[in-house]
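ok new one. same drill as before - structure tokens go in, u give me an amino acid for every spot. 401 of them this time. try not to just spam alanines like last time pls lmao
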């Protein structure tokens, strides 16, 4: 078994029936559903081990995150910005002391017997001068900028998959070390003052594409195997006119398009050396904070639009919320108008950026959509008290199995 896949105490599996509110397969009932979600939890810390210490102390933000999960009760969920530690201590603490304990404003205890986590690129030193400031590494942001993915310590802004159904550990694929230059037609950043590549050839040939990682996590659901395709591309900001983060964000999103389109791609090799994309008959759900709004913000919008319009991605109504719509209207009244529909936004990023749609759950064709939403209640709803644990909001879809 992959060391990052954990089966919790067997007794937990006996308690799952208390949370199986989405399953209905008796006579005359609707087909059972699979609820899939993504949630950027903001459970990161600038200090190595800081999230573990916060969870040990009883973190208020983590309690709100757990309360939201207890309310929505997804069967399969990706948590972005959940700091990675090799022993999985943070994940253990979050399950035992938060999800398994009824939280204020939440619901009944929630149990996930299966999980997946693995190393990510954030905070891992590259040994290269990636920001071209004349030094390698250093302190604070200088060190983070020269990591394979921006981070102040290895594992910051990591990812965690929680599942009520078994994970096929032997078939998990990770693309942490895939080189950016390996992608045909990669958007190599250019120095606008010279028109030449921002990174010299020696650096460019070593750069990793994924700022965290890209994972294909096969989950054995009652309706068959579902490939959970999860990632967290870099924000397309915090760079300069060379737009290196914008270009990277676009190609990180493009990686999933390539993965769906080219089953025999010789360049598309995972960390175990297996090459090629997803078989044409495989069902999947893409999930994550993709840091790209279809029409607003600084990203290359074509990247996310082309993923939304991929022939293998289900055409469906966009998840929505009343709280997001309310927040978008409030920003518009302050002069920060956006082109996107307010009810579709998934996060509030302050008075300069406003509210945008950055978080996605995209099922494959072959699924039937039963429902969807963004957990973002109106400000006068009592549930709003638990919705501010992160600047992002949980997005969910219900799929017929």
């Amino acid at each position: 078994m992959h060391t990052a896949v954990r089966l919790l105490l067997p007794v937990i599996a006996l308690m799952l029936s208390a949370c199986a509110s989405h399953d209905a397969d008796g006579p005359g009932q609707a087909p059972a559903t699979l609820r899939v979600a993504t949630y950027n939890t903001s459970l990161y810390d600038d200090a190595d081990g800081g999230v573990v210490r916060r969870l040990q102390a009883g973190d208020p933000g983590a309690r709100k995150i757990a309360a939201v999960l207890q309310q929505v009760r997804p069967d399969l969920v990706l948590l972005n910005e959940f700091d990675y530690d090799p022993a999985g201590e943070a994940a253990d603490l979050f399950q035992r002391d938060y999800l398994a304990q009824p939280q204020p404003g939440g619901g009944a205890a929630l149990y996930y017997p299966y999980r997946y986590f693995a190393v990510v690129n954030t905070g891992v030193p590259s040994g290269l001068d990636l920001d071209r400031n004349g030094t390698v590494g250093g302190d604070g942001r200088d060190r983070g900028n020269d990591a394979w993915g921006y981070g102040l310590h290895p594992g910051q802004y990591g990812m965690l998959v929680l599942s009520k159904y078994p994970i096929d550990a032997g078939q998990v694929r990770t693309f942490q070390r895939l080189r950016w230059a390996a992608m045909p037609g990669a958007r190599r950043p250019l120095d606008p003052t010279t028109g030449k590549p921002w990174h010299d050839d020696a650096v460019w040939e070593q750069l990793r594409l994924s700022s965290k990682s890209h994972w294909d996590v096969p989950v054995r659901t009652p309706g068959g195997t579902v490939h959970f395709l999860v990632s967290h591309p870099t924000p397309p900001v915090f760079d300069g006119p060379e737009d290196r983060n914008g270009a990277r964000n676009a190609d990180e999103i493009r990686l999933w398009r390539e993965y769906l389109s080219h089953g025999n791609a010789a360049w598309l090799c995972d960390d175990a050396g297996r090459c090629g994309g997803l078989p044409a008959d495989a069902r999947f759900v893409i999930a994550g904070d993709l840091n790209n709004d279809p029409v607003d913000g600084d990203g290359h919008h074509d990247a996310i639009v082309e993923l939304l319009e991929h022939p293998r991605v289900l055409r469906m109504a966009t998840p929505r919320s009343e709280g997001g719509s309310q927040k978008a209207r409030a920003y518009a009244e302050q002069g920060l108008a956006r082109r996107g529909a307010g009810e579709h936004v998934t996060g509030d990023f302050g008075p300069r950026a406003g509210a945008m749609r950055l978080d996605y759950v995209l099922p494959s064709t072959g699924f039937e959509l039963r429902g969807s939403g963004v957990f973002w209640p109106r400000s006068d709803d009592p549930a709003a008290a638990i919705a501010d644990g992160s600047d992002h909001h949980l997005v969910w879809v219900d799929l017929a199995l």
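Residues 244-261 form the longest helix (18 residues). and btw DSSP finds ten helices and 14 strands in the chain.
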